[in-house]
Structure formats: C-alpha cells, structure tokens
Amino acid sequence: MATLNTTTAPFGAITTYRVIHAIEGIKNNLVAWNTKRSTYIQLSALGARELDDIGLTRADVEDLNTGFFRY
C-alpha cells in the first residue's frame, strides 16, 4: 500500500514564502509611511483656523511627525 507524505513542503518553498512575505511587509510599511507623510504635509499647510474647523490643533499635526521615519 502506497502512502503520500503531505507533511513536508518542496525544497525552498518555505524560504520563498518567507521572502515574499518579507517583501510584502516592506511594501506595506512604505505605503503606510508615504500616506502618513503626505497627510502631514497637507495638514501642515493649513492655518490654525482651518485646522480648528476640522477639529485638529497644530499639536495634533506635529504628533504625526514621530517615530522612526521622521520627515
């Protein structure tokens, strides 16, 4: 009687998956960083009155400029 071993993956498949997963993570982090950067730039261009109209203060805008990737 023949059996099929389904508990092992082909050689390199797991490594390939991990590399692809890492690349996707880097891409997602860059997209999130660029979105945050763009939002910060646009909000920084607004005046105090315009920020008050949307319920933000200058301090709220400056809080976006924290973390590893500051601009």
Main sheet makeup: none
Through-space gap between termini: 65 Å
Following the backbone from N to C, one meets helices and strands in this order, namely HHH
Count the strands? 0
Q: Helix proportion of residues, in percent?
A: 55-70%
Quickly count the helices: 3
Instruction: Classify the secondary structure makeup into a structural class.
Output: mainly alpha
Strand content: under 5%
**pLDDT average, as an integer?**
85
As an assembly, this protein is: single chain
Write the layout of secondary structure elements.
Elements: H1 13-44, H2 48-53, H3 58-63
Task: Give an account of the 3D structure.
- Helices cover 62% and strands 0% of the residues.
- The protein contains three helices and no strands.
- The chain has helices at 13-44, 48-53, 58-63.
- The longest helix has 32 residues, at 13-44.
- The N and C termini lie far apart (65 Å).
- The model has no long low-confidence stretch (mean pLDDT 85).
